Amino acid sequence: MAKNTPLHFKVNYLKLLKAPVVTLSNINSLPENSGLSGAQLAVNDANSTGKFINQMFTLSQFELNAPKELLKRIDQQFKNGVFVFLVSGDSDVFEDIDKWAKNKPVLVFNVSESEDEMRYTLCLSSVLHTVPSYRMKSDALAQWLVAKRLSKILLIKGKGAADEHIAHAFSLAAKRFGLSIIDERVWDFNTDLRRSTQQEIPLFTQTSRSYDVVFVADAHKDFAEFIPYNTYLPRPVIGSAGLEALAWHRVIEQWGAAQLQSRFRKMVARDMNELDFSAYLAVRSVAQAAQQTGSGKPAELIDYIHSDAFELAAYKGRKLSFRSWNGQLRMPLALVQPNAFVSESPQVGMLHPTNELDTLGFDAREMRCQ
C-alpha cells in the first residue's frame, strides 16, 4: 500500500425485513431509514477526522427478506474484504451469524434487538450489542422507583413475545431492587380504544391492592399510550409509555448531544431515534479503535475493542465500553417523557464493586452461558 493511501474501512448495514405489525395507531412507527441514517452520520463524522489521520469509511446497505439470505450476503461480503457488519434483525439471525463468525476476524454489531437471552444464556461471543437490553432499561426504571420511594407496581403486558420479554425483565429488576409487583394484567382488548379509553382502562386497572405506579410492557406501542391519565388510581405510568428508559431521545442535549442532534437533523430532516444511535455507536466504536491503534487489521481492532483499554465518548457524560462477559455496551440510560429529560440511570447512590454502569443489565456473576 502506498504511504499516502488511506486505510479504508468498509461498513455493511444489513437489515432483515419484517412484516409490519398492525397496531391501533401508527403515530409511533419508525422511519424506514432508522438505523442506517445513524450509521451514515457516524461515517461522516469518522471521515471528518479520518482525512487528518489517513483513514476513510464507506457504508453500504443491504435489505434481506430471510435470515438465510442475510447470512449468505454477510459471507459474500466477508469474502470481498468486509469485516464490519451492523445488523438489524432478531435473535435467531444473530445465533446463525455467531456460528458462522467463529474463528473469523469480523466485527458484528447488534443494533436493534434488545432480547435478554442473547446476553444472558446464549452469550454470543462474536456479537457486540450497541442497543441496550430489556434488562438494562428495566433496571434503569427500577432504580428511579427506588429513588422516588415508589415500591408497589401494577404490571400490564401485551400478549406478544416481546411484551413477555419486557415484563420478565422488569420482574427481575423489581426483585433486584426490592420492589413489589402487586398484580399483573394481560392486555386482551380488541376494541377501538380511541373511543372507549375512559370506560375500559379504569376498570382494567382497578385492583384489590393499592399501587404506586403502573409499568406497561408493550413493545410495539399498540395500547401503551392510552394508559397514562386513564388508570383507576391516578398514578404515574412507566415502561412503554409515560416515563421511558432509552439510550437516545431528541430531548437529550447535555455533553455535546445538542450538536449531534443538530448534525443529524441537518442530514435527514428528522430527529435521531434509539435505533439510529445504536448504529451510530457501532460505527464510532470501529472508528475509535482505528484511531487509537492506527491499524486497519481486523484482528488488532477486534482485540482492542474487546480490551479494557477501549473507551468510547458518546455524548453520555462518561466513557462507554463493552462488557467482556456478554458483549453489551455499558452506558447510562436517559429517563424521558415525550417532551422532556427527567433523569438518568444509574441513579445517584447505586453502588457496584467495579463500575456502577454494571448495575444496569446482567452483571458477570449473573451469567448463565450455555
Q: What does the model show?
A:
The protein is α/β, with parallel strands linked by helices and 370 residues long. Helix content is 35%, strand content 19%. The protein contains ten helices and 14 strands. It has helices spanning 36-53, 67-79, 91-101, 117-120, 134-148, 161-176, 193-204, 257-268, 274-293, 298-305; strands spanning 7-16, 55-64, 84-88, 107-110, 127-129, 152-157, 180-186, 213-217, 237-239, 244-246, 321-322, 329-330, 333-337, 340-345. The strands form four sheets. A five-stranded parallel β-sheet has the order 2-1-3-4-5. The protein has a four-stranded parallel β-sheet with strand order 7-6-8-9, covered by helices on one side. Strand 6 (152-157), helix 6 and strand 7 (180-186) form a beta-alpha-beta unit. The longest helix is centred in the C-terminal third of the chain and has 20 residues, at 274-293. The chain starts with 6 loop residues before the first strand and ends in a 25-residue tail after the last strand.
Produce the secondary structure layout:
Blueprint: E1 7-16, H1 36-53, E2 55-64, H2 67-79, E3 84-88, H3 91-101, E4 107-110, H4 117-120, E5 127-129, H5 134-148, E6 152-157, H6 161-176, E7 180-186, H7 193-204, E8 213-217, E9 237-239, E10 244-246, H8 257-268, H9 274-293, H10 298-305, E11 321-322, E12 329-330, E13 333-337, E14 340-345
Parallel strand pairs: 1-2, 1-3, 3-4, 4-5, 6-7, 6-8, 8-9
Antiparallel strand pairs: 10-13, 11-12, 13-14
Helix pairs in contact: 1-9, 2-3, 5-6, 9-10
